[in-house]
Design brief:
Order of helices and strands: HEHHEHEEHHHHHEEHEEEH
Number of strands: 9
CATH architecture of the domain at 8-115: 3-Layer(aba) Sandwich
Protein name: UBX domain-containing protein 4
Number of helices: 11
GO cellular component, one term: endoplasmic reticulum membrane
CATH topology of the domain at 8-115: Glutaredoxin
Keywords: Unfolded protein response
Largest sheet: 5 strands, mixed
CATH class of the domain at 8-115: Alpha Beta
GO biological process, one term: ERAD pathway
Shape: rod-shaped
Strand order of the largest sheet: 6-5-9-7-8
Radius of gyration: 74 Å
Helix content: 55-70%
Structural class: alpha+beta
Region (Disordered): 183-232
Length: 388
Amino acid sequence: MRWFEGSIPAAIAAAKERRCVFVVVITGSDEQSTQLVCSWETDSVCEAAQDCCVAIRVDAESEACVQFSQIYPVVCVPSSFFIGESGVPLEVIAGSVTEDELQRRISRVTQVNTHTHMHTHFLSHTHTCTHTFSHTHTHLVTPAASSVFVCNVHQDKALSFNLICCYFLFPCRITKKLEERREQKKQAEEELKKEVERRKTGKEMLDFKKKQEEEKTKRLLEERSREKAEERAARERVKQQIALDRADRAARYAQSQVDAETARIAALQARATEQEARRDAAQRERSAFARIQFRLPDGSSFTNQFPSQTCLQEARQFAAQEVGNRYGQFSLATMFPRREFTAEDLQKSLLELELTPSASIVLLPVRHTHTLSHTHTCLVCYPCGDIP
């Protein structure tokens, strides 16, 4: 298929000049669009549409498709529009069709278009076109010098094919309409800008008031928090003072108890010291003399009192005078604790030998002084003194 390379207005002009059907093929990037293009580009379809159609291919995502859809609603992609001289679609194919079906549709559209005379129809409707152009709700877009004309008509009226051509026949009137449209658009933009500014100012005022309220609330909360903190601090100070008073009273009470206990202990210690002094005095008084009991081998005994500073030797001499020569040589010993006095002990005082205030001393004959235990046995077994 030999697609028209120019724009839609140029394709319309070419179709008008050649008195052919104007064909617009809307395609996308899907598989059905690919199949439809393949059907259009087959040799048989190209041959059938070569002399009776001016076909242009339009991408569904392009601006030309958007402008075309404002005149002829595109409800399906892909689609094929066959538009006659009156601007009314003669045939609309939705979706993809086979090669044979496409040839049949082209043949039928060609037969319908053959019964019309585009030139006569154009002359008879020139005045109607002008009148219609001035009274129809239009929307013109001219992005460049060779802008595409877009006409948005009421849905209950058919679009005249010649109305599209009026763009090329009455440029001054179109320019005036464009200027009016630009002025209206400018005013609308200014109104919109003013409205935006007004809303922005209102929003800023609301934000400012809201910020003031938030700051006021924040200050009130801070003041309340400060008051609560001061109240807590005051309560803590009162509690601390009460605790200090209690501690002071407890300390004074404890100190009084300590003082009383100290005085009691001091009194007890004084009384104990006095008693100890009395005991010591009595002890010293008792220790000034030593009452010694001398026990003889025959079981008899005699007692005598000596000054505590008397040497043991003097006590022995006293015992020797008392017993005479009945036992010959003898030594001195104590039973409890068991102790036999030596020659060195004879020179010590009775106080140094711990024989005060009283003690019991046994007279041991020299021949029986081998052991204290044996002597004790002899004294018990042989009270008469006849030890074998």
